[in-house]
Write a structure and sequence with these properties.
With 128 residues, this protein is an all-beta fold. Helices cover 0% and strands 50% of the residues. It has no helices and 11 strands. The strands form 2 sheets. Strands 2, 4, 5, 6, 9, 10 and 11 form a 7-stranded mixed β-sheet that branches. Strands 1-3-8-7 form a 4-stranded antiparallel β-sheet, with no helix packed on it.
Length: 128
């Protein structure tokens, strides 16, 4: 198993920044990548960004491209999501999840079905 714990959420104003963290533990050697997803009230959980542990290859949803940056610290088994220029529509519970499978197509990391273990989520609220 891989355990994931998110932190860093909070209440901010539009235009502000936040950095989320996702700390991984357990069988992290079996992890290929970590993805961030979010779920707003009444909406489906949607992909935000993902990064591979080995090469640091990244993939972003169009809605956050240019505003959010995903990074990782392999020594700390931690993945970060730097969120800049936040908008009220970014309000959601943010989850990180483990992707155990290698892929040559980065876009595949946007598929929710690839992820097996999930964190509990952290709330991000952006006021206008």
């Amino acid at each position: 198993q891989v355990q994931l714990v998110e932190s860093g959420g909070g209440l901010v104003q539009a235009g502000d920044s936040l950095r989320l963290s996702c700390a991984a533990s357990g069988r992290t050697f079996s992890s290929y990548a970590v993805g961030w997803f979010r779920q707003a009230p009444g909406k489906e959980r949607e992909f935000v960004a993902a990064i591979t542990w080995s090469t640091g290859s990244t993939y972003y949803a169009d809605s956050v491209k240019g505003r959010f940056t995903i990074s990782r610290d392999n020594a700390k088994n931690t993945v970060y999501l730097q969120m800049n220029s936040l908008k009220p529509e970014d309000t959601a519970v943010y989850y990180c999840a483990n992707d155990p499978r290698y892929t040559t197509t980065l876009q595949n990391m946007g598929l929710r079905s690839r992820y097996d273990y999930w964190g509990q989520g952290t709330q991000v609220t952006v006021s206008s």
